[in-house]
Design brief:
Blueprint: H1 6-16, H2 20-44, H3 50-59, H4 74-77, H5 80-90, H6 95-102, H7 111-117, H8 131-140, E1 143-144, E2 150-151, H9 154-162, H10 166-179, H11 185-191
Antiparallel strand pairs: 1-2
Length: 196
Amino acid sequence: MEIPTDQEIRELHERLAPSPEAFERVYTHCRIVCELAEQIIDRRSLAVDVALVRAGCLLHDIGVYRLSGPPGEREHYIRHGVLGAGILGDLGFPETIRRFCSCHTGMGLTRDDILRQGLPIPVADYVPETEEEELVMYADKFHSKSRPPVFVGAAHYMVAVRRFGDDKAATFEGLVDKYGEPDLAPLATAYGHKVV
C-alpha cells in the first residue's frame, strides 16, 4: 500500500475545503491530532506504522468538508466519518486509509449505537480494529474544532463521553491507561488554543 505524503494530503484538503476558513479549521485540527499521536507514540515507544498513523491523522476529518449547512452543525456532524471514507474511496484510497475516517468518531460506533440512537449513517460497526486506528481515534479526543478551537483534557472528555454510556466511558478510561494523557500545554501555547 502506498501511503500519501503530507503534501498530497494538504493538497487534497485545499481542493475539498469549501472556504479558506474551513481549510484552516479542519487541516489545523488534523495536524494537531497528528502531533498528539506522534507524542503518544514517542512517549510509549509504540511499535506502530508511524507513516500510516500520520496519514490517518491528517485525513481522518476530510469528510467534514461535505457537511451541509453551517460548519459544526451537530445533528449531521456524526456523518463526517462515513462521508470521509466515501470521499477517499471515490479517490481510490485503500480501505486501510479510509477506515481512519469511518472509525474515529467517539469511542467507535457499533451497529447497536446506530440503531439505538437513530443515527443518520448506514448501520454497521465503525470501531477501530488496529492499534493505528485506535491511536488516531484516541488522539482526536484531545482537540476540538469548536469555535474557538480548544484542547480537551482527559477529565473533560470523560464527562462528555459518559453521556453516551458507561461502556464508552470505560473504553476511554482503558485507552488513557494504555496510552497515557498527552502533554497538551506545549501544543496549546504553540497554537494559541486554551485547554479545557
